[in-house]
Predict the structure of Copper-exporting P-type ATPase.
Amino acid sequence: MAERTEEATAQVRLGIVGMTCASCSARVERALTKLPGVVTASVNLATDQATVTFETGAVDLEAMQRAVQDAGYQAHPVHEVGQAGADTEREAREREIRRQERAFGLGAVLSVPLLASMVLHAAGVGGTLAHLLGNGWVQLALATPVQFVSGWQFYKDSYHNLKSRNANMSVLVALGTSAAYFYSLAALLRPDLGIPGLYFETSAVLITLVLLGKLLEARAKGRTSEAIRKLMGLQPRTARVIRAGSEQEIPIDQVQVGDRVVVRPGERIPVDGTVVSGASTVDESMLTGESLPVEKQPGDAVVGGTVNKQGTFQFEATRVGAETALAQIIRVVEEAQASKAPIQRLADVVSNYFVPAVVGISLVTFAVWYLTGGDFTASLLAMTAVLVIACPCALGLATPTAIMVGTGLGAEHGILFKGGEHLERAHELQALVLDKTGTITRGEPRLTRVEALEGWTASDLLRVAASAERRSEHPLATAVVAHAQEEGLALSEPEGFEALPGRGVSAQVEGRRVLVGTRRLLEDEGAATGSLEELRLELEAAGQTAMLIAVDGHPAGLVAVADTVKPGAADAVAALREMGLEVWMLTGDNARTARAIAQQVGIDPDHVLAEVLPEQKADQVQALRDRGLKVGMVGDGINDAPALVAADLGIAIGTGTDVAIEAADVTLMRGELMGIVSAIRLSRQTIRKIRQNLFWALIYNSLGIPLAALGLLSPIIAGAAMAFSSVSVVTNSTLLKRYDPTRALSRPAALGPRLGEEPGR
Ligand SMILES: Nc1ncnc2c1ncn2[C@@H]1O[C@H](COP(=O)(O)OP(=O)(O)OP(=O)(O)O)[C@@H](O)[C@H]1O
Ligand SMILES: [Cu+]
Ligand SMILES: [Mg+2]
């Protein structure tokens, strides 16, 4: 349960049952934070979950559950994907919905005749039915079960609230409906008091409407979390593995690393692994958003949850259980959905002060009405209407529901936001720094040239250089070694190997000291590069990277590699610039090569930061931030982790699913730069939704309160408006699902240059 142990703290997620509005979530938060040993607690109203960080050993799960219970709610641990018990949480949620359905059903059945009586009376219709429904005792019989059975939850919740000196929506509903109910009861029991009119229908219809609102809200909330359910549905329940020489179908949780798994046409791949035999194409769209099937051959990685097309193949399991890419993705999305966006804090604060303020306003309303000569009934109804219209329940839902849909939608397109905070931050970026190798380019450099100086043959030089590079993990080294192996050269084992970050390598090969790297490296080591300079400059101007070779202090030649720009990179840069972002390139490579690549993708040469040593990349990002810009950094998340951290938003971009999901704020599962455009678009759209939601949530209250105070709003209309405001906010959030962050933008961006290229225009 306790996951991600950092020093002595751990985190746990609890599902909370029974919260109705923002002040409920605030109360649960407070109850948890007050516990000794709890560091932070954050409660999300859209997911009904609390995320608690606590000092390990200082507090246990039971204590947390008890604290939540004392505050008037129920807490149960949220289980990891694939763990036993993961279903009980959904069951609890569904039970709660069914309970609400029953409460609403009862309220509706009994409220209809009450409402009918009011309508008949207003229309002046007589007759037996009207007479019967108009009878006070009949009305009492109808209204009482609504008040105390369907509406019991409001009393119960109010009790807990008031006990912890709080007031929430339930308090408002309980107060408002009780006022109407008991007033009518008094009028019925003591006709001698001469109280005019009965308002049983007001209390009953109000309770029914609020319950309807809650029910619709719960259903819509369920729809906002669909993304997670879809991701979980990708996990097959069984796998076919080879054990003791024969094929067996076993439950997924028994698959072990190293197992040989058999995949037939049309089947879902059960866990992560590496293909060992057979070949096929695999549809990875569910995880990466990439719609084209990917070819798989021995040696290629396959990912659990993706779908095999025609071929049959076997693979060796490399990651199982909670380690698989799918499990990680689900974890990230779940955490993101349970997290809070900063924009929400405002709503939380507002709603904390709202309810007490509203109770105050309603009392003042009553007093002013009564004292200025209004009758008791009118004063009471105005007060009730104020209590009801002012409920801030929609306010608490405005942000989290939109964040939930936004993060879920992102996941469907292969864009993983680590938290609501990051989803929010992406929309305010002003500058984007793109790493060159592996981000703008494919990151698969290939050897293009071997140039040997006098005294060397090309193959000797390549053999020596590749031997020196053998122990290096740099992609440049990999390219050199791969090429030498293709040529069939026998490499020798280097001694005293040293990797010089940002410069090259140095090693003893066959008794000779070999340097491979930049001009600076050779010069620093006293090896002149004179006769190689011309060729180096020429290669660099063509966008290639030249690595100079010196043996025993003398220049021996060079090898050059070229890396190709990713398809769509230029379109993405154009789109980003159109969106108003400054686009920068950051690289350790030399300035000339960098500028040649920048030109290919349309990055301004003044925005190229080249020859930056790996440890200085973060400083460069910081320098941009110091200019007052909100900076996003895009890299592979492995080599440039410090720069990702230094940026306002760190975006890791991966090819396939071997991405460092943990390393960044945002992970793009698909290697394309267009993903950045989509991520920012999605963020902007989500923020737009949140603003709309906040507007809708507040407009009801702010317009409604004065109307209600003036007596222009009946409590029933106020109740309907309140229910409608919650439902409209949640529905507005679910509408975000229709948004396609990939389509909306790529069209105009792709259209622009193509039109311009047309001859004769
Ligand atoms: N193993 C190596 N062999 C040869 N040259 C190297 C090696 N490592 C680094 N270099 C030289 O140092 C330069 C800078 O390396 P660095 O790793 O900082 O950047 P990069 O990988 O080329 O580019 P980017 O910063 O875009 O990833 C390289 O362009 C290359 O010339
Ligand atoms: Cu409400
Ligand atoms: Mg690099």
